[in-house]
Amino acid sequence: MRAAAWAATPAIGLYLVLRSLSLDVMYVLASHAHVRAPGKEVFPDGTINNQWRSFTSFMDALLSWDARWYTKITELGLGGPLGAVDSDGVPYQLRLMFFPLYPWLARPLTYLPFVSPVAACLIVSFISAVAAAWGLYAIGRHLHSHRVGILLACVWALAPAAMTQNGAFTESLFTALAVWALYNVLKERWLIAGLLAGISGLSRPTAAALIGTVGLAALVAAISRRGGWRPYAAMLLAPVGLLAYIGYASYRLGGVGKYFEVHQNTFGAEWDWGKSAWTTVTDIMMGVGDDNGNKPIRILSVLILAGFLILLALLVSRAPWQLTVYAAATLILVVGSRAHISMMGRHLLPAFPVLLIPAVALARAKDRDLVILLASMALLSGWYAGWLPFISGQAI
C-alpha cells in the first residue's frame, strides 16, 4: 500500500493542481458575474415551492441542486414522519429519493468541532476525489504505463462538469468506488470487486452499470472456472446495496410503485427508453423545439454526448471488455432516463474508461507541450464550471 501510494503521488498531485486552477477560474468568473448581474436568478431555494434565487458566490454552484439535498440529509438525516414536512415545507418522504451513502459518510464529521454539514460534505468529496484519482492512476498504469496512469487522472480532472467532483455531489464518491471495483475485476480479486460494487449501490441508482459489469465479469470467470467460489460470491455481493436501499425506501413509502411514482412526479426522473434525450438532441440539431432551441448550453451538451460516443467507439478495441461494458452501460442509463440536457456532463462523469483514449494520446506528447495543453484545458474547464451555473443558469 505504501509503495502504491507513493507511485500514485504525481497523479494525485497533478490532479489537485489542475482542479485548483479550474476552481480559481470559476471563482473569478462567479465574482465577475455577480457584480455584473447580482439579481440573476440561478438556483432553486430548496423549499416546496422551489423558488429560484440569485447567486452570492461560487460556492452556490458547489452546493446547488442535488447538493442542497445532500447537505440537508447530512444535517437532519433521512428520517421523519411520512406525510409531514420539514422546516422548509418539504415533505420528509422526498429525502428517500436520495441514496444514503454520501450523507452517511459526511454526518459523523459534523460531530467534530467547527465542522458544519456543508464542510462535512465537501471533506467527503475531497477524500473521494483523491481516492478516485489514485484508482485512475492504478488502472492507467496497469493497462499501459506510469505516464498514462498520471494522465488518466489529469484528464478526469478536466472533464466537462468536473466542478461537481469538488462539490456536495456523489460523482467523486461513486467514481472512486467504480474505479477500484473495476481495477479489482481486472486483477480478478472478486471479493473486493463484489464488495465495492455492493457498497456503490448505496450511493446512486446508476450504480446499476457497475453492478451489472462486475456481475457479468464474475459470471464469465465462473463459467471459465477461474477463481473458485469467489466469482459466485461477487455476483451475490454486487447488487446487495442497491436492492437493499430501494427495498427500504419502497417499504417506507408503501411499495415499489410509490417509490418510482415520487421520483417521476416530483423530480421528473423516469426511464423513458431514451425518448426525451432523442427528442432534445434532434430538436437542437435541427434548431426546432422551444424558444431556447439553440441556447449554447444545449449545443455544448450535444457536443459532449457526441464526443463521448466517439471515445466509446474507439475504446472497444483498445481496452478490456469490462471497461467498455461499464462505460456503455453508464451511457445507456444516462440517455435512457429523462433529465435536463445540461446535466449530461455530470451524469457521464463516472464513465471514466472513455478517458483512456485521450490519456494514451497525451502520453505521446512532449513534457513542455503537455504542460501547456493541460494548463489551457484547466482554464477552459474552470470557465465552463463558472459559465454553466452563473451565466447560463442551467441545471448542473
UniProtKB/TrEMBL annotation:
GO terms for molecular function: alpha-1,6-mannosyltransferase activity; GPI mannosyltransferase activity. InterPro entries: PIG-V/Gpi18, RgtA/B/C-like. It is a multi-pass membrane protein. The keyword Transmembrane applies. Keywords: Endoplasmic reticulum, Glycosyltransferase, GPI-anchor biosynthesis, Membrane, Transferase, Transmembrane, Transmembrane helix. It comes from Actinoplanes cyaneus. This is Membrane protein. Pathway: Glycolipid biosynthesis; glycosylphosphatidylinositol-anchor biosynthesis. GO terms for biological process: GPI anchor biosynthetic process. Coiled coil: none annotated. The chain crosses the membrane at residues 111-136, 148-170, 190-220, 232-251, 297-316, 323-341, 347-363, 370-390. The lineage of its organism: Bacteria, Bacillati, Actinomycetota, Actinomycetes, Micromonosporales. It is found in: Endoplasmic reticulum membrane. It comes from the Bacteria. GO terms for cellular component: membrane. Residues 100-238 form the Glycosyltransferase RgtA/B/C/D-like domain.
